[in-house]
Amino acid sequence: EVHLMESGGGLVQPGGSLRLSCAASGFTFGSYAMSWVRQAPGKGPEWVSGIKSDSRDTYYADSVKGRFTISRDNAKNTLYLQMNSLKPEDTAVYYCARGLRSAPRSFWGQGTQVTVSS
Fold it and tell me: Would you say 34 and 97 are in contact if contact means Cβ atoms under 8 Å apart?
């Protein structure tokens, strides 16, 4: 059973930074591409970033390119998202997911809230 647990969300001022983590279990983490997806209040899910299993290739939505960095530690079964220069429009629940650009909801974590506000 795929189990993903995000952490690291919180309230941050515009221009601030946060680092999200996602602990994976129930599958061979190092064999799968992973991604981050977010959902803002009243909106549909938005793909944010993806990383291949060996970290060689990373991908970003235009809205976060240059500000967010995805990474992973396969030895620790953990996915990360470093978010810098945060903007109010980054406010959302952030989910990690098994898959590069899309994944069924059953392959998402429970999410962590990120709120960017002064």
Answer: yes
Separation between Cα atoms, residue 2 and residue 109, nearest integer Å: 9
What would the pLDDT profile of 37-54 be if each residue is shown by its tens digit?
A: 999 999 999 999 999 999
Please say whether the beta carbons of 5 and 110 come within 8 A: yes
Of 12, 8, 38, the residue nearest 23 (C-alpha): 8
pLDDT of 105 higher than 90: no
Rg (CA), the chain: 13
> Higher-confidence residue: 114 or 102?
114
Task: Quote the longest CA-to-CA distance of the chain.
Answer: 40
In this structure, the strands spanning 112-116 and 10-12 are: parallel
Query: pLDDT tens-digit profile of 13-22?
Result: 999 999 999 9
Assigned token pair, 97: 């997911």
84 touches 68 (CB < 8 A): yes
* Integer Cα distance of 76 and 50 in angstroms: 18
Question: Which amino acid appears at position 20 of this protein?
Answer: L
